[in-house]
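Homework-ish question, so no full write-ups if that breaks the rules, but can someone show me the predicted structure for this set?
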Amino acid sequence: MFMTKSSLRAVLGAVTLALLQPLPAEAAGGDHISIAKQPWSFAGFSGQYDKEQLQRGFRVYRDVCKACHGMKRIAFRNLVQPGGPEFDEEAVKALAASWDNKITDGPNEKGKMFERPAKLSDPILGPHKNEAEARDTFNGALPPDLSIIVKARTVEPTAPWYTHIFLMARDILTGYQEAGADYLYALLMGYKDPPAGVTLGDGMSYNAAFPGHQIAMVQPIQTEGSVDYSKDDSGKAMANYAGPKMSMEQNARDVTAFLAWAADPSLNDRKRIGWQAMLYLLVTTFLLYLAKKRIWARVKH
Amino acid sequence: MSNHVSTYNPQSRFAKWFDERLPIMRLVHDSFVDFPTPRNLNYLWTFGGILSFCLVAQILTGVMLAMHYQPSAEGAFNSIEHIRRDVNFGWMIRNFHAVGASMFFVAVYIHIFRGLYYGSYKAPREILWILGVLIFLAMMATAFMGYALPWGQMSFWGVTVITNLFSSLDGIIPGFGTAIVEWLWGGYSVSGTTLNRFFSLHYLLPFVITGLVILHVWALHVAGQNNPTGIELQHKSDSVPMAPYAVMKDAVGMFAFLIVFAWFVFFLPDYLGHADNYIEANPLVTPPHIVPEWYFLPFYAILRAIPSKLGGVIAMFGSILVLFFVSWLDTSRVRSTKYRPIYRWFFWLFLFSCLALGYLGAKPAEGVYVFWARVFTAYYFAHFLIVMPIVGLIETPSKMPRSITESVLGPGGGGAGTPAGAAAAPEKR
Ligand code: HEM
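A: Not a homework solution, just the prediction itself:
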């Protein structure tokens, strides 16, 4: 309580110094890069998946990512279900049967494990039988399963402390839950030449969005785009195709939307039921409030 | 209140017969229908009811989750994904439970700060307050063990960090801390065994909380409710019967709260959690930042503010233990901060410190963050140990109304005479 003048000055000095000092994360030198928010169809409190986009996204997964990544929590039948890509059931049956990463089943009556083509109820597998095999292929790195990758990633806030509470309020009021998708899009678009002075490890690529910036995944979607939606699976140009053109942005956006669905397949239902619940609660609260006012009108309070 | 005469009047013959054998309807009537509640309660008094709702909701959703959940290191994470994807409305039940835990804490923090502002911990409500602190502790234990159950990276590493704190007891008796930690783990590391016992306790503790809540409400009904003036009920005109007055107001508060609750359940189910918890637990990979759930952040900041591990643990537990003593640390003659011109400033400073500690708890323990965590930790304790005893002694309370009725109707309206507004009021029973 009774401080001497000099000790008071020392405390004030420490406080001023502390306020002026940059925050450690920023001082550490831009390990946090700012990742832009993208205009997702499923964003916010009212957004829903765009079925066509999920279908295109699945094509990107199948034609590009599947070479290295599995999606074991998604079964082929999920591709048919409402709220997802909603492919035709027969087409998905055929797709499952021709999926080149076979299902290991067994033991059969001879006691042996065997491989068989996938059915609708089977998971969508990647090329590797297990983690060790995958790591062996990639110099020790592991291409993660992509079924919940969008929920498993986020964007670290970089804003200064005094804006924190306002950004929080904005995110809550707008229902912002798409940080994982924003990150994934930035990752797919983030391949750059390494800046001067950065030496990359063996088999590593420079990526602006990846923490630490050195990633063992080579740029998966080519700069001119990798999947041309105007061609069918056999490579023939489709007659009167009117959808989006092939580009890196378009491929990255679509596959991200598809993986967002895979991570959160109930989103469409969730938000629809959510609005019904909100409406019910708002009306009930209002009616209860009127009733409460009437009852309390008899008593001053 | 205890001296309140029962007005229960069973109508049917069966009700009379039953009442003579088990007067439970009389108990309910006297405690929740005819119970006198101060007429001047504001919406902060609806949080008790909201908390009871939260407890029941957690138990119901929890029992449903437990039907599909598997408490093993191999099965836990997959069973949560199974609930999210394959169980009918599993995503909804799970969101209700996970968001519900956060909402429970939102409500309990408002409830606690309400008590601190209006001096609800002062005589004759000390036991009521202490039971509240016990509930808070049991809630924290329940939520901590619940967060372990999805067995994601944050679950695993959160458990590892927090259980490891007990090893600091080695500093007092060598070997003692380690023994405790291994006993908690059921082995030499956090494993499926740990998860299994956490599940067992996570299922048990909510029922312990239920028991504590019953005692809490009992103590409340002996002492009666405090109110914004902090003045005890004196006249009939100071109170209204709980039904329909307080019940109706509670219903409005509860539904308004449910709007916020539903907003998170349906539109922001993962906002309050961590992305890392969607990565399956892996003892070989440590996440870059291990952060507890938001409701533990102030205590986590206190833990890391102290340079020594044992000191940090003592400070963290001390920050909760000190709550047991506020009834005696506060020396003020009046309860409500409304009439405390000096203490009022300290109250808001204290609230600000808690929020600041919450922010700092989420930041890495380095540089300025540590400096500020120390400043606010110091104030946290100073508030209880220095401000509360001293300000209460030196402060002159501002002018207070003589009764609740007077505070509502203005001077002249109160006192012993018939209050002006009471003619039409049904408090004449
Ligand atoms: C005081 C009441 C309770 C609190 C504060 C609480 C808190 C929590 C928390 C924080 C989680 C982790 C949520 C997540 O991140 O996914 C959780 C999970 C869980 N709780 Fe509770 N809980 C309570 C009561 C119960 C009860 C009574 C049961 C069972 C009878 C239960 C069963 C479960 C199960 C099975 C999980 C794992 C599923 C999941 O993580 O979504 N809980 N709880």
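Now go work out the reasoning yourself. Hint: Residues 192-223 of chain B form the longest helix (32 residues).
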